[in-house]
């Protein structure tokens, strides 16, 4: 799978007003600078809506240090959601 098609969702924002985009990008950039790169491993695989009719593939990641959870919490605090 090409790298541009891969990502890790740590915070789903849903619909966001275009006028808020610059602020959101600034907050995400700020949070990113406060966290070191991390390594993780695949722990689960799945598909939506089902493996036979997959439109989306998902991968569960092992995060023993809870770094992804910390990033998500930092995003919550910084975005004031």
The ordered H/E elements are: HEEH
Which segments are poorly predicted (pLDDT under 50) over 5 or more consecutive residues? Answer: none
Helix/strand-derived category reads: alpha+beta
DSSP helix fraction: 25-40%
Task: Tell me the number of strands.
Answer: 2
Q: Characterize the main sheet.
A: 2 strands, antiparallel
What is the global morphology? globular
Give the count of structural domains: 1
Whole-number mean pLDDT: 89
Distance between the termini: 33 Å
Alpha-carbon Rg, integer: 15 Å
For the biggest β-sheet, the strand order reads 1-2
Report on this structure.
The protein has two helices and two strands, in the order H-E-E-H. It has 81 residues and is α+β, with helices and mostly antiparallel strands. It has one domain. It has a two-stranded antiparallel sheet. The radius of gyration is 15 Å and the shape is globular.
Which labels suit this protein?
81 residues; alpha+beta; two-stranded antiparallel ribbon; 2 helices; globular
Write the layout of secondary structure elements.
Elements: H1 21-33, E1 41-48, E2 56-62, H2 67-79
Antiparallel strand pairs: 1-2
Helix pairs in contact: 1-2
């Amino acid at each position: 799978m090409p790298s541009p098609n891969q990502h890790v969702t740590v915070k789903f924002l849903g619909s966001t007003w275009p006028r808020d985009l610059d602020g959101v990008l600034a907050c995400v950039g700020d949070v990113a600078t406060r966290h070191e790169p991390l390594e993780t491993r695949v722990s689960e695989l799945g598909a939506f809506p089902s493996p036979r009719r997959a439109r989306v593939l998902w991968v569960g990641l092992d995060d023993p240090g809870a770094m992804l959870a910390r990033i998500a919490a930092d995003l919550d605090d910084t975005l004031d959601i």
